[in-house]
Amino acid sequence: MSVTDEQIIERLRVLLGESDLQTTTEKMLRKKLEEEFKLDMAEKKAIIRKEIEKYLEEQAANGQDEDEEEEDEEEGDKSAPSRGRACVLSEPLQKFLGEERLPRPQVVKRLWEYIKANNLQDPKDRRKIIVDAKLRTLFTSPLTMFSINTQLTKHVYAPDADEARAKPAKASGEKRVEKPKAEKPKPAKKAKADDGDGGEEKKANNFQKPLRLSEDLASWCGTDSMARSDLTKFFWSYVKEHNLQDPSNKQFVLCDAHLKKLTGESRIQAFAIQKYLSAHIIKD
């Protein structure tokens, strides 16, 4: 059976998307490809390694936009904004942008235009954002390029949520609980979409949930709470900014003083970063 490099790469990327990157190794992926294609992949090690490294870099670069979309989908209620539609903005955000409605990506873009135009990125660490008087009407310190989307959620609503609130008020002078009850079928719909795979849905939601960080981890991140997904993005941003990937094998990271303090290691596998950071998550 003849298999092209393109076919191997295409299947590898599917496997990467399905895998738990905290525990998966290059060897595990190669064995999986060997089983599926029934070929020895020893000669394809370089191609497989290069594609894994490329995938990891893409995850770091594109993770922010993907997480915004996941947050919207996982909310599963009327207040979750749809990325393609104009969202209803909170009163403070309306005053800030001069708009009543905007798609969420446009809101994020306009905020970053303001931040850059006013040089509000910390010159010592550009991941951190200086909260001036105007930003303080929307956000609280500390604010980072990763936590800004979490804080923005309370200022952006789906159009349906606004209409749902307005209709009961117009229909009668009384506030009734019957309308919210009508939304109860939502969870059943979500369960159906899961196709019986409720465990994975819970895992996805937990990955987005803001967590309390230890003093050492909070000092490194610049914030005392962060979702696991944001921690992963912060880690990759830090690694790339400080050139900490091992040049001999970019799946490994050479730990500087900060990372050594957090992991206790001088060299770690990038896939396993969540294992090390878990020790610095404060359980409620």
TrEMBL record:
Cited SUPFAM superfamilies: DEK C-terminal domain, SWIB/MDM2 domain
Annotated Acidic residues bias: 64-76
Extent of Basic and acidic residues compositional bias: 162-204
InterPro entries in UniProt: DEK_C (IPR014876), SWIB_domain (IPR019835), SWIB_MDM2_dom_sf (IPR036885), SWIB_MDM2_domain (IPR003121)
Residue intervals of the DEK-C domain: 2-57
Location of region: Disordered: 58-86, 159-208
Span of domain DM2: 82-158, 206-283
Protein name: Uncharacterized protein
